[in-house]
């Protein structure tokens, strides 16, 4: 069996220093979320006006909107989504009835930042600490890389359900990891079922929260350890079904399909490919835009060296991680509780989640809506797993100290990318697309 660390395990940081580091990261994360929630004009972030239309309908009518294939019906085109995020936001919106409309929007942005940002920070910290208990600095940097990714900053800081989907899928991934590495727990089975059900009730794409759970159960079954846990499996699936199935059953009854989707104005990628004969172009478009938009909102970075350096650094990290996982193949594992085995299981569950996300996004692009081409944002829900797989690959190539230095550099790159993006938004994008806009106001027109 290959020994896990090639250097002595780093000394554990004290509770005090670890707590201070987490507070500092949380303060930086919150500051970036608030900054981006303020400098982006209301209604100009992706689909925010439509998300707000759905929230406002629920707050005013206290019922689900009637869906229509063309335009989405009473709640607008985003009423195709399950209602959990929108229902929670509607409560907040109704509670701020005494404020001007612009401030009600900002309150919802800040509430989303606290809900998604605070929750993501805590669950990512728990996830990486469980994977790297012998390397607190590595665990901290994994948390930082996940929450400081510019795409995380975007979707945790404005009115949208993708941020909550990211949080809930990450919770399900963490609980699935605990399921396959720890002793059985009824409480954990309940929480896993709740997280899967809540994710499926937030976005259809977030229903992939069940994938790491299934992966955990399969890993246990392969080792003959699932026997005696069937009750927990049934409990998790039963709770997930009870929480979310009513939405899909309702859609089947009223609309003839459990998966409602507002009609795409430009058709599917296959429709366009057959019409134009340009299959290669659409395949390249899907691959390019999915990859480029997984890490940062397209157009945020100034074109040129800044963009090249950012994507170049990310690409080097991913290629190096692939080399690490491929070159140093692990020997047979004899100790199921070893840290190396724990990290491999975490990588397996993370990979299954990512594959499910990409398969769902690409299916939507090719079969439903060509506008899904910039679908990297759907990979956000797998970001914690992507980070772990990347760190895990490099940990097979580098000493522990070098691994810390490399991912500390990633943290610096992400902070710089966020600051450059803020500059780009304020001084390039806003004057171009919202001329005359002032802070805390709706854009003109």
Tell me what you see in this structure.
It is a single chain. Helices cover 67% and strands 0% of the residues. The relative contact order is 0.13. It has helices at 15-39, 48-61, 84-95, 101-131, 136-148, 150-155, 162-181, 186-200, 210-222, 230-255, 269-276, 279-292, 305-327, 339-367, 383-395, 400-433. It starts with 14 loop residues before the first helix and ends in a 12-residue tail after the last helix. The protein has 445 residues and is mostly helical. The chain has one domain.
Summed up, what is this model?
The chain is mostly helical and 445 residues long. The protein has helices spanning 15-39, 48-61, 84-95, 101-131, 136-148, 150-155, 162-181, 186-200, 210-222, 230-255, 269-276, 279-292, 305-327, 339-367, 383-395, 400-433.
Map the helices and strands.
Blueprint: H1 15-39, H2 48-61, H3 84-95, H4 101-131, H5 136-148, H6 150-155, H7 162-181, H8 186-200, H9 210-222, H10 230-255, H11 269-276, H12 279-292, H13 305-327, H14 339-367, H15 383-395, H16 400-433
Helix pairs in contact: 1-4, 1-5, 1-16, 2-3, 4-5, 4-7, 5-15, 5-16, 7-8, 7-9, 7-14, 8-10, 9-14, 11-12, 13-15, 13-16, 14-15
């Amino acid at each position: 069996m290959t020994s896990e660390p090639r250097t002595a395990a780093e000394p554990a940081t004290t509770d005090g220093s670890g707590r201070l580091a987490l507070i500092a990261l949380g303060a930086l994360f919150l500051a970036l979320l608030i900054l981006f929630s303020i400098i982006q004009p209301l209604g100009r972030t992706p689909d925010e006006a439509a998300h707000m239309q759905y929230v406002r309908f629920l707050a005013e009518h206290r019922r689900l909107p009637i869906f229509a294939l063309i335009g989405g019906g009473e709640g607008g085109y985003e009423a195709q989504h399950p209602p959990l995020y929108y229902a929670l936001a509607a409560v907040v919106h109704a509670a701020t009835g005494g404020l001007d409309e612009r401030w009600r929007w900002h309150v919802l942005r800040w509430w989303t930042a606290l809900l998604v940002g605070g929750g993501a920070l805590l669950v990512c910290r728990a996830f990486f600490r469980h994977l790297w208990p012998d390397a607190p600095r590595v665990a901290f940097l994994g948390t930082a890389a996940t929450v400081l990714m510019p795409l995380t900053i975007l979707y945790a800081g404005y009115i949208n359900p993708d941020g909550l989907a990211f949080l809930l899928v990450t919770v399900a991934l963490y609980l699935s990891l605990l399921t396959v590495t720890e002793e059985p727990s009824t409480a954990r089975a309940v929480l896993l079922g709740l997280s899967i059900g809540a994710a499926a009730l937030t976005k259809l794409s977030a229903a992939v929260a069940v994938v790491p759970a299934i992966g955990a159960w399969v890993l246990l079954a392969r080792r003959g350890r699932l026997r005696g846990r069937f009750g927990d499996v049934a409990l998790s699936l039963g709770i997930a079904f009870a929480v979310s199935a009513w939405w899909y059953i309702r859609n089947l009854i009223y609309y003839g399909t459990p998966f409602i989707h507002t009609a795409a104005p430009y058709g599917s990628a296959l429709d366009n490919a057959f019409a134009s004969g340009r299959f290669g172009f659409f395949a390249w478009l899907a691959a390019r835009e999915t990859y480029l938009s997984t890490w940062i909102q397209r157009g945020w970075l100034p074109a040129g060296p800044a963009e090249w350096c950012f994507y170049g650094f990310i690409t080097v990290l991913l290629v190096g991680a692939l080399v690490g996982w491929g070159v140093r193949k692990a020997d047979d594992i004899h100790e199921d509780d070893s840290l190396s085995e724990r990290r491999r299981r975490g990588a397996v569950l993370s990979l299954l989640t990512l594959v499910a996300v990409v398969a769902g996004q690409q299916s939507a692009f090719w079969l439903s809506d060509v506008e899904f081409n910039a679908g990297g944002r759907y990979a956000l829900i797998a970001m914690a797993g992507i980070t772990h797989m990347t760190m895990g690959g490099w940990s097979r190539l580098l000493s522990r100290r070098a691994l810390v230095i490399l991912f500390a550099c990633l943290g610096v790159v992400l902070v710089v990318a966020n600051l450059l993006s803020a500059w780009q938004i304020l001084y390039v994008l806003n004057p171009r697309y919202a001329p005359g806009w002032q802070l805390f106001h709706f854009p003109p027109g």
